[in-house]
Amino acid sequence: MGSSGSALRVCADHRGGINWLSLSPDGQRLLTGSEDGTARLWSTADGQCCALLQGHESYVTFCQLEDEAAFTCSADCTIRRWDVRTGQCLQVYRGHTSIVNRILVANDQLFSSSYDRTARAWTVDKEQVSKEFRGHRNCVLTLAYSAPKDLPSDSCLEAAMGGGLLVTGSTDDTAKVWQVASGCCHQTLRGHTGAVLCLVLDVSSHTAFTGSTDATVRAWDILSGEQLRVFREHQGSVICLELTDRLLYTGSADRTVKCWLADTGERVRTFPAHRHSVSALKYHAGTCGGPIPGEVAARKGPVSCCVSTVFTGSGDACARAFDAQSGVLQRVFRGHTFVINCLQVHGQVLYTASHDGALRLWDVRGLQSVPPSPRRPAAKRSLSRLFSNKVACAAPVPLQPA
Q1: What is the pLDDT of residues 343-364, one digit of tens each?
Q2: Is the Cβ–Cβ distance between 64 and 73 less than 8 Å?
Q3: If DSSP codes are grouped into helix, strand and coil, which group holds residue 10?
């Protein structure tokens, strides 16, 4: 079921598991954050490490790469900003009193979430907290931001929403919408009966989609706080989300990815074949004809026309490529020994980062469109333990022989 993918390069410089992988907007660099307390910058041209970012006193939980700066957050309660050319630390942001889970750089602002039950906004070049968002009763996990230009022009709301809206998801079973300018809670989104693990925002329709340990995804109007619809077919925690072209892709601890019509909640198809939780998810529209750069390109033949693909990473240590239209498994990428925590696609290369400490580069050319197979009823599975980001990293599942 799907041919095996070939690894172009294995980058094993980290001395601990890789918790996150970020691609720069210009596609020229990758950033990895690791359990070893460091981050590393990599060139997408040749897969070489071009900078080691050292300074955190505990493991790096998350990272975001911009064209000129890299941002990392850590269990040491701090966030750091780095120069991507020199690897020098430019700023250290202190204020959180527990593990910083996520960061988001948008609209010249830096946002962060933490186990200390707060989210914060920072002035990027001054290392200062500009706003503190307090109100969650437990750990704040995930973040999304809607800029002022994406919000409706309403004179009554202009002052309140002049700084945009920040959406946060928490292990207290709620999501909250915050007015960035004032720091006030604009809406509390109640309905989940489990922790909110993941969040994606459709800024054009002012809709937030939240995935939870209660096995549902919910859609919300972030302006009114109204729950718009519930996506109910998963049998385990919803771990990751991706929204593209009015289609919502959801990855779950029930070992499947599902595709839904975002506007109606109708399930379009299911992507099975995983042997453990789906821990990472990426939709790729594909390109035709682009070569793999650098020395990697010299090892391969002509480029085939690509199709829209859903790439997944799993606790079974494999990455997979599925035809987005048919749901058919196209390729399995084997080589990691523990859970794949994150993945990115650039050009004709898939990048996977794992708790085994390795960054692997895979050739994704030659994926062909496959007609759908006859539908079979999905097996129901009950899961005894809830998924959490840290548990997935701390208890990876070794790859079993194929």
Answers
A1: 999 989 999 999 999 999 999 9
A2: no
A3: strand
